[in-house]
Design a protein that fits this description.
Number of helices: 8
Strand content: 15-25%
Helix content: 25-40%
Radius of gyration: 21 Å
Order of helices and strands: EEHHHHEEHEEHHEEEHE
Shape: globular
Length: 270
């Protein structure tokens, strides 16, 4: 098990690597779980060195949302027919306007000369677009094996995602055994709008290729004081692998939100 502790800005290069072996099949096994060990290390660092740690949870949830949105967009961009959906923007807008004018909704209002919902009810045009996207993706993979995604030269593939929507309902979407791409799961495509509106992802599992081998990694932003990164394959790893895993997370740190800046730490566990 490897934990990386970082002080200063969120992705500062000054990192301390702490390696530990998680013991199993021993008495009091719970004491050797990732979270338990991490909390002990953090408390020791606070008391012994006087390190102060801020609540960085929200900032990292937004970073994982960026990752989810970017990787989803990357896949859709690799499917030829998805480009045609963007050309239907005016069509979706016209249909939405006809629906809003035809049906006497109780919570409608006029905005910029168009009838729209007065509250957060539904973006009809966006929902129609995502519905067509679902049809395009389902059609593309209907007679193709999931392995075709490996030939798309994607930077990474999402295997599962957990997020809370604007109504604070927790949703977990995962592929079979968290190995197959979650893009092909209908619930994922049906919830595209909900994920976009939320702009926060709690956890995400991805897979990518590096050094001619596949890596499966989980990023967990549910902790207030650190982002936990789990290595899901029981194989040997090198320093360059850990750096790659960290760089993947770093590249999605383009949110304007400042809440995650300051002292922080990241845990990479095996």
């Amino acid at each position: 098990m490897v934990y990386i502790y970082s002080c200063g800005s969120r992705f500062e290069k000054n990192l301390l690597l702490i390696k530990a072996w998680r013991r199993q099949n021993v008495e009091n096994e719970d004491e050797y779980k990732n979270n338990t060990l991490m909390n002990k290390i953090v408390e020791w660092l606070k008391k012994s060195i006087g390190i102060k740690v801020k609540n960085i949870q929200l900032g990292y949830k937004k970073i994982l949302a960026n990752m989810n949105e970017s990787l989803t967009g990357e896949l859709l961009g690799a499917i030829p027919s998805c480009g045609e959906v963007d050309l239907m923007k005016d069509f979706f807008s016209d249909v939405e306007e006809k629906i809003m004018n035809q049906i006497p909704f109780e919570n409608s209002t006029q905005k910029d000369g168009k009838t729209t919902f007065s509250g957060r009810i539904m973006n009809i045009a966006q929902e129609m677009k995502n519905m067509v996207i679902r049809a395009v993706v389902s059609d593309y993979f209907f007679e193709r094996n999931y392995n075709v995604i490996d030939q798309m030269n994607l930077s990474a593939v999402i295997n599962s995602v957990k997020f809370s929507d604007l109504d604070n309902s927790i949703t977990i979407i995962k592929s079979e055994n968290n190995i197959n791409p979650v893009f092909c799961a209908k619930p994922f495509l049906m919830l595209l709008t909900a994920m976009e509106d939320s702009d926060q992802v709690d956890t995400i599992n991805i897979s990518f290729r590096n050094r001619n081998r596949k890596f499966r990694i989980s990023y967990d932003a549910t902790k207030e004081e650190y982002i936990e990164i789990g290595i899901l394959d029981p194989e040997d790893y090198y320093l360059e692998d850990y750096e790659k895993i960290w760089e993947i997370l770093k590249q999605y740190d383009y949110a304007k939100d400042k809440s995650a800046q300051g002292d922080c730490k990241a845990a990479i566990g095996e």
